[in-house]
UniProtKB/TrEMBL annotation:
EC number(s) on file: 3.1.3.12
Cofactor(s) needed: a divalent metal cation
Catalytic activity: alpha,alpha-trehalose 6-phosphate + H2O = alpha,alpha-trehalose + phosphate
Superkingdom of the source species: Eukaryota
GO terms for MF: trehalose-phosphatase activity
Assigned protein family: Belongs to the trehalose phosphatase family.
Protein name: Trehalose 6-phosphate phosphatase
Length: 385
């Protein structure tokens, strides 16, 4: 990769840049690592008494905490909505969390807007769990038309980008608003609205299908496409007998969903993924909501995509700019961190119905509150004249 410019550049890194809280298969030895395999092959007694892949998987995965990471990756459906909290205690804990740690962006709206006064707002929105509710079937994560209108309205006043782990095509199909910026594949596939440029020497112009309008693309991981395609085929093949698994092609990354897999088979899903990707040191694995995500080991994530887009929009390092990022997933933390610690100070807003630690400043409970927040932004902007 040879990307030279004043813009942030993706750089190959040797070790997987994953935070400590995020457990990975590679960091946590899985059953049947090469060391274990060597030990077994050197001891024929062991070979007889420890049947490969039958016992040991669960024990090893459990002792590494890896299965716990898979279990805790998404709140159970019973507590997904604020109206549905299972007990008064849970309700109280959530309220304390919003009061003491991550205040509601709706209750704090005036405070946020007093800080925004005289500033240009740039808006970044995650898709799944933020604009659409989490559902069992990834292909059915539709956005309501009310939410689409809210996004459309807010984009009339503020530059708005959708930043998603999904492929850009897929998220564009769901959102269907041509006036937005889109960053698919966790920011590795960035597209300007028609007629706009990303202002980067390595962006390229392509015609988009229906109306043949020109858009500008930036794809820092394009050299990994052949490898990702190969891994995609292997993963589809190796998991085909596990009921409920869904392998999703997100172009520059792959999602292996286990939401609909019986919990007793989660270790098997992990094993299949590890078996395939262990021979690809240029790929890394992260955890999403009941999903294992495989992507290239480049120094690029949703946070980098936010910085790139601010640069493209000429809003980088400007004191009169307030970026706001709304997201629900672990991968959104990279963007929250950039807005919290980087030169482009702004607000991360975590969408969560359960208390959790985050680099965000504020919180919203669910997509319906996200919609309310977007509408409030529009009302505020109109009231400013
Ligand atoms: O960055 P995002 O827009 O939040 O995308 C992250 C992943 O979202 C999707 O999976 C999640 O939502 C599904 C639909 O609600 C749900 O069934 C699944 O369990 C969740 O993990 C998407 O399918 C993935 O490809 C994205 O990476």
């Amino acid at each position: 990769m040879d990307i030279k410019s004043g813009h942030s550049s993706p750089v190959m890194t040797d070790s997987p840049p994953i935070s400590n809280s995020r457990l990975t298969i590679r960091q946590n030895r899985l059953p049947y690592s090469s060391a274990a395999a060597t030990a077994i092959s050197q001891n024929s007694n062991l070979l007889l008494t420890v049947p490969r892949k039958k016992t040991g998987i669960l024990d090893d995965v459990k002792s590494n905490g890896w299965l716990d990471a898979m279990k805790s990756s998404s709140p159970p459906p019973t507590i997904l909505n604020k109206d549905n909290l299972t007990s008064d205690a849970a309700d109280m804990t959530y309220r304390e969390w919003t009061q003491l740690k991550y205040p509601s962006a709706l209750s704090s709206f005036e405070k946020i807007m007093s800080f925004a006064k005289g500033k240009r707002i740039a808006l970044f929105l995650d898709y799944d769990g933020t604009l659409s509710p989490i559902v069992e079937e990834p292909d059915c994560a539709y956005m309501s038309s009310a939410m689409r209108s809210a996004v459309q309205n807010v984009a009339k006043y503020f530059p708005t980008a959708i930043i998603s782990g999904r492929s850009r095509d897929k998220v564009y199909e769901f959102v269907s608003l041509s006036e937005l910026y889109y960053a698919g594949s966790h920011g590795m596939d960035i597209m300007s609205p028609a007629g706009e440029s990303l202002n980067h020497e390595h962006s390229r112009t392509v015609s988009v299908n229906e109306q043949g309008k020109d858009v500008n693309l930036f794809q820092p991981a394009s050299e990994f496409l052949p490898m990702i395609d190969k891994v995609l085929c292997s993963l589809i093949e190796s998991t085909k007998d596990i009921k409920g698994v869904k392998v999703e092609d997100n172009k520059f990354c792959i999602s292996v969903h286990y939401r609909n897999v019986e919990e007793k088979n989660w270790a098997l899903v992990a094993q299949c993924v590890d078996d395939v990707i262990r021979t690809y040191p240029k790929l890394r694995l992260t955890h999403g909501r009941k999903v294992l995500e495989i992507r290239p080991v480049i120094d690029w994530d949703k946070g980098k995509a936010v910085t790139f887009l601010l640069e493209s929009l000429g809003l980088n390092n400007c004191e009169d700019v307030l970026p706001i990022y709304v997201g629900d997933d672990r991968t959104d933390e990279d963007a929250f961190k950039v807005l919290r610690d980087g030169p482009n100070h702004g607000y991360g807003i975590l969408v969560s119905a359960v208390p959790k630690d985050s680099n965000a400043f504020y919180s919203l409970c669910d997509p319906s509150e996200v919609m309310e927040f977007l509408k409030s932004l529009v009302t505020w902007k109109r009231s400013m004249g």
